[in-house]
TrEMBL record:
The keyword Lyase applies. Keywords: Lyase, Pyridoxal phosphate. It comes from the Bacteria. GO terms for molecular function: L-serine ammonia-lyase activity; pyridoxal phosphate binding; threonine deaminase activity. PROSITE patterns: ACT, DEHYDRATASE_SER_THR. Catalyzes the anaerobic formation of alpha-ketobutyrate and ammonia from threonine in a two-step reaction. The first step involved a dehydration of threonine and a production of enamine intermediates (aminocrotonate), which tautomerizes to its imine form (iminobutyrate). Both intermediates are unstable and short-lived. The second step is the nonenzymatic hydrolysis of the enamine/imine intermediates to form 2-ketobutyrate and free ammonia. In the low water environment of the cell, the second step is accelerated by RidA. The keyword Lyase applies. Belongs to the serine/threonine dehydratase family. NCBIfam families: ilvA_1Cterm, PRK07334.1. This is L-serine dehydratase.
């Protein structure tokens, strides 16, 4: 574990230079989960992520010669911004290697913070290898996103703050895992100061590398994920032993569960949280019985979600819940039928968003029009009532947006 002395020293380094982020009680998420839920809002941290904590502690430990030469880091975005932000403030040249597929907003934000960005490799591991090549060729200092004591100590200050911010000790905490720096640091803090609190890690099912290490499995296949901030194929060499020593269990959640957690935080808490930051809530909602009646802390580790991806998540959630649907209605191509369709919608409390009216001419005896109506509804039952109403009025009507699409 990281010693309490090292954690406290990191906290002193961070004092006045990063936010002591709020920890809030969530009544709505408590009602949804059956637990007493507290949220640690690292999405409100400087640069929008906990990563700026470890980055500062690591940069502050550099010698004058190392600082003058410059640093290099590999990151999908949050670590990149943390390193770039503090390096700029400290006058340290910074180069960031990002894997292909990194959201554009994270690339542009990193460049605006003064760092040189190189896009290389399809995965974090490949980007890391490219960064290590620059260490050899240019003499730069590599700033790991998780596998260094300074990094883990900086992230562990999140745990120190959580312990200070709740009057009654938490029964359990759920922490996202990529390489494991956040969990290793936070778990160390809790084991020193709140040893009865159970520690749980959470990963996405495309990259459960720490869970594989924890349980001696081999389920890490890679691929695209909403939780790109924790898309790490190999667990940290230094973080894995600490996590094995301190952690009760590691949950693995799928993409739909992560989407639903992002949507729930946006709708119920008015919080913008990226996929990696929402996995703790996803795991809690999938394991309600295990945490029922317990005081549970969730670390919302970051809020740097691409606006287009967030828009898609919100829209997909509306369709999935039946709060938006597309109905395809076949009607005679005669005057008055489109008006009748809109009246049926209005009478049944549905709001029309868009109508696509496509005429298909066959011969004089068969003239039909298919109308696709994008409609806002209350839920899936409301959608079904609309369909039943149209069928009862003699129209052919079906939903063409699948509930789970």
């Amino acid at each position: 574990m990281i010693s309490l002395e090292v954690l406290k020293r990191a906290q002193e380094t961070l004092a006045g230079k990063v936010n002591v982020t709020p920890m809030i009680y969530s009544q709505v998420l408590s009602n949804m989960s059956g637990a007493e839920v507290y949220l640690k809002l690292e999405n409100l941290q400087i640069t929008g992520s906990f990563k700026s904590r470890g980055a500062l502690v690591r940069l502050a430990s550099l010698s004058k010669a190392e600082a003058a030469k410059g640093v290099v880091a590999a990151s999908a975005g949050n670590h990149a911004q943390g390193v770039a932000y503090h390096a700029q403030n400290m006058g340290i040249p910074a180069t960031i290697v990002m894997p292909q597929g990194t959201p554009f907003n994270k690339i542009s934000k990193t460049e605006k913070l003064g760092a040189k960005v190189i896009v290389s490799g399809e995965t974090f591991i490949q980007a890391r290898n490219a960064a290590l090549d620059l260490v050899k060729s240019d003499g730069l200092t590599y700033v790991s996103p998780y596998d260094h004591e300074d990094i883990m100590a900086g992230q562990g200050v999140v745990g120190l703050e959580m312990i200070d911010q709740v009057e009654i000790p938490l029964d359990a905490i759920l922490v996202p895992i990529g390489g494991g720096g956040l969990l290793a640091g936070v778990a160390s803090a809790f084991k020193h100061l709140s040893p009865d609190t159970e520690i749980f890690g959470v990963q996405c099912d495309a990259f459960p590398s720490m869970a594989d290490s924890f349980y001696n499995q081999n389920n890490t296949k890679g691929g695209y994920t909403l939780a790109e901030g924790i898309a790490v194929k190999e667990p940290g060499e230094l973080t894995a032993p600490i996590i094995k020593e301190t952690t009760t269990d590691i949950f693995v959640v799928n993409e739909i569960q992560i989407e639903e957690a992002v949507l729930s935080l946006a709708e119920n808490q008015r919080l913008t949280v990226e996929g990696a930051g929402a996995v703790g809530l996803a795991a809690l909602l999938q394991n309600k019985e295990r945490f029922a009646g317990k005081r549970v802390g969730l670390v919302l580790s970051g809020g740097n979600i691409d606006s287009r991806i967030l828009s898609s998540v919100l829209l997909r959630g509306l369709y999935r819940d039946g709060r938006m649907a597309v109905l395809r209605i076949a009607v005679p191509d005669q005057p008055g039928h489109l008006a009748k369709i809109t009246k049926i919608m209005s009478d049944n409390g549905a709001n029309i968003v868009e109508i696509y009216h496509q005429r298909m001419f066959f011969d004089l005896s068969v003239k039909l029009t298919e109308v696709d109506v994008v409609v806002e509804t209350l839920d899936q039952d409301h959608v079904q009532r609309l369909i039943d109403q149209f069928v009862g009025e003699g129209y052919s009507c079906r939903e063409i947006s699948e509930k789970n699409a």
